[in-house]
Specification:
310 residues, Rossmann fold, seven-stranded parallel beta sheet
């Protein structure tokens, strides 16, 4: 088996994937912007130069690069489309031409509101530019008729990278007495970056094309999740509930973006990490003690009645 290339290995997701796969003994070639990577690469670069510089044969390539900010894509859609669609498509075409199977990281935002939770074959109705761009790349890969992998993830969590993990940031803001606004009417299923790594390890020896959702077992509103983290940090009063529309975000989000993870479990044998374990890790990374209590079974988090009434 050849190595796996990670394009975007300096980013929040790519860095975690590279570390996990290397720890599992899988040969990895890292490319992207930042220090300590094997190859320097930007999506504006000619992909042929990247592929000619590969230090060893590569069979698969994770594409985890591009503009990751959902709101930035809506503020500057032309610039974002150039990067997230046009330049990404050029990179993917080059990988396929060299016989390298792409592993494209897509998003729950390819879906709009509808029947929930969203299964892999559900109709896609993205509400924002970021989601539309992801859907365009998915369609491009399937049209080629060549082996490719598309992994859809939800809100990404990685306490091992505390400076960029949203749960750690939230806990630190609460402890500092800074207010946090969170939507009471938006449902998500957070994705642990470590679960992405476990799925990719499972996929590497499996040929062909795959489409799979990686998401947690615990559906939660943004408010319920923020309230739980802030409460464990000792400052539940820091979280202020509101409606999604009140946040006036540049990019429209679906109120229900829950992903169905049955295929992840039943076909690929990957059980998502429990939300309680993620919360404990986030609190530790934020400088606090462990969240007490055993690992919880899958459940639905709902805000306490008194807090939800505010």
């Amino acid at each position: 088996m050849g190595a796996i290339l990670i394009a975007g290995a300096g980013g929040f997701v790519g860095a975690r994937l590279a570390a996990d796969l290397r720890a599992a003994g899988i040969p990895v070639v890292t490319a992207g912007r930042g220090h300590g990577l094997d190859l320097c690469f930007d999506l504006h670069d000619e992909p042929g130069r990247l592929l000619r510089a590969l230090p060893r044969p590569v069979d698969d390539a994770v594409v985890a690069c591009g503009i990751a900010s959902v709101d930035a894509c809506s503020r500057e859609p032309a610039r974002a489309r150039l990067v997230n669609v046009e330049r990404t498509r050029i990179l993917l075409a080059a990988l396929l031409e060299h016989g390298i199977r792409p592993i494209f990281l897509s998003s729950d935002l390819v879906f709009g509101d509808g029947a929930l939770p969203h299964r892999e074959g559900a109709p896609r109705r993205p509400l924002c530019a970021y989601g539309r761009f992801k859907a365009e790349i998915e369609d491009f890969l399937w049209r080629t008729g060549r082996p490719a992998v598309v992994i859809r993830a939800a809100k990404l969590v990685n306490p091992a990278d505390p400076t960029r993990c949203p749960l750690v940031t939230l806990a630190r803001r609460a402890r500092a007495g800074l207010p946090v606004r969170a939507a009471r009417d938006q449902w998500i299923t957070p994705t642990f970056c470590g679960d992405l790594s476990r799925l990719i390890r499972t996929l590497l020896p499996r040929p062909g094309s795959h489409l799979v959702h990686v998401a947690g077992d615990t559906p939660t509103t943004r408010f319920a999740l923020a309230h739980l983290v802030a409460g464990r940090a000792g400052h539940p009063e820091a979280v202020r509930g509101c409606g999604l529309a009140e946040l006036r975000l540049p990019a429209e989000r679906p109120r229900n973006a829950r992903l169905d993870n049955r295929r992840l479990r039943e076909v690929y044998g990957v059980a998502p990490t429990a939300l309680g374990e993620l919360l404990r890790s986030a609190l530790e990374a934020a400088g606090g003690s462990r969240i007490p209590g055993p690992r919880g079974r899958a459940r639905t988090l709902r805000p306490p009645p008194a807090a939800a009434a505010g």
